Amino acid sequence: MTNRNVNKTILELAMSISNSGALPRAAVPGIMALLCGVLGLPQKKLFLKTLEDGSGKGGTKVNTWIDSMRASSPTRVKSTQNQDPSPWTLYHPSALNLFDQIVCESKGKQIVTFLDYDGTLSPIVADPDKAYMSQKMRATLKDIARHFPTAIVSGRCIDKVYSFVRLAELYYAGSHGMDIKGPTNRRSTKKVRKSFHNQINETKIFIMVSFPLIIDSYFFVFFQGNEAVLFQPASEFLPMINEVYNILVDKTKSVPGAKVENNKFCLSVHFRCVDEKSWAPLAEQVSLVLDHYPKLKLTQGRKVLEIRPTIKWDKGKALEFLLESLGYANSDNVFPIYIGDDRTDEDAFKVLRKRGQGIGILVSKIPKETDASYTLQDPTEVGQFLRHLVEWKRTSTQYHKL
Ligand SMILES: O=P(O)(O)OC[C@H]1O[C@H](O[C@H]2O[C@H](CO)[C@@H](O)[C@H](O)[C@H]2O)[C@H](O)[C@@H](O)[C@@H]1O
Fold first, then answer.
1. Phi, psi of 80 (to 5 degrees)
2. How many independent structural domains does the chain possess?
3. Distance between CA 14 and CA 11 in Å, rounded?
4. What percentage of residues in the chain have a pLDDT greater than 90?
5. Which of 75, 118, 165 to mutate to test the pocket of ligand 1 (most atoms within 8 A of CB)?
6. pLDDT at 26 > cutoff 50
7. What are phi and psi of 11, to 5 degrees?
């Protein structure tokens, strides 16, 4: 039996256990992990591969997308209160419960915070245009950015995510990291310019025009008014993305609840408000359009299909890029904290694991296959964690001043 078939069989087995009504659909990843454990198989690789198999083009992939969309964002979530901790929470403990351990690990290092937006800073809502962040969260972010370099890393286009966050002192990596901008307030902009010029002098070639295919050798730094536009590796895809956007808007207009969102260098097709019976034909429709665009690929998020260029660039690469631009390319003195809730955030968690630096925190109430070390349940807990960080920083700074 090939690896692919083993994956498929385990996924099917997990799905049929869930379909029997014994367990909710959200438990599929957990069941898969359990089956892999019993069979002595490397569960992480198997599960991820199964999902990847569904991100290609043609055949049975549509069902796989739909199943994984359901699993990643279930409609009903069972209360986890007053239950024994599952093995999952033992392996991915609460970042609030282990706060002291986390800050102890960061001792003597510069904390840099990376925050996903939807589902992390704002709760998931039905209308993507109304995913507002609370005033309390905005105040928390302001405080966090006062103490640590902070970046918002989102699948949204920068303009949209900025319209929700409205803080000029942050870094923004929009379109899944394919559009990176530095802070626009004066003090931080100077810092960005300085840090970039240092790097450019040391190792990199500074050019004004982007050439996306040579992304490893070039920085694309230019200034639009007061804005430091740091990197746009997919700019050549803009016309294609706009073309596909128009086609998809047209093709999906007859599906009630379907929504296509233009995220500048990528697109989102939203399923959240579509009747589940129409999910398969909608996904099929998207797949058919994409068949004509081999330079674009599809990935799944929380009740959303995302269309993006096939370039090797993701939230993990954006994290590395930002660390480098802050002067921490080969430094042991940095402690990145990345918080995210989505499949696309896994690329960043992986990078941190590989670097053996900092921590990844997954925002989830349900067990999920993840490379993050810790968990937080929801944006409310994310806010609490960030406020603890600010408080800890304030107290430790005061202590050192004494
Ligand atoms: O990387 P992120 O900041 O997490 O962005 C990922 C996608 O988030 C948004 O969609 C998700 O949130 C919506 C609002 O809560 C929700 O309606 C939708 O079902 C979720 O998938 C955003 O609209 C997408 O464009 C982003 O790609």
1. -100, 0
2. 2
3. 5
4. 61
5. 118
6. no
7. -65, -45
Residue nearest to atom 4 of ligand 1 (CA): 118
Q: How many CB atoms lie within 10 A of CB 352?
A: 23
Any idea which residue has 């069941």 for tokens? 31
| 126 and 202, same domain (yes or no) | yes
Is the CB of residue 158 less than 8 Å from the CB of residue 181? yes
Q: Which domain holds residue 170?
A: 92-235+312-401
Residue type, 335: F
Q: How far is the CA of 176 from the centre of ligand 1 (A)?
A: 11
Strand order in the sheet with 374-376: 222-224, 227-231, 179-181, 171-174, 150-153, 110-115, 334-340, 359-363, 374-376
Span from the CA of 363 to the centroid of ligand 1 (angstroms): 14
Mean of the per-residue pLDDT values of the chain: 80
Beta bridge partners of 122: 118
Does residue 79 lie within any of the structural domains? no
Structure-token match 């105040």, residue found: 139
Nearest alpha carbon, ligand 1 atom 23: 128
Entry pTM: 0.78
**Closest-CA residue to 265 (of 375, 371, 158, 340):** 158
Is any ligand 1 atom within 6 A of the Cβ of residue 346?
Answer: no
Query: What distance in Å separates the CA atoms of residue 377 and residue 394, rounded to the nearest whole number?
Result: 25
C-alpha triplet 51, 56, 59: angle, nearest 5°: 95
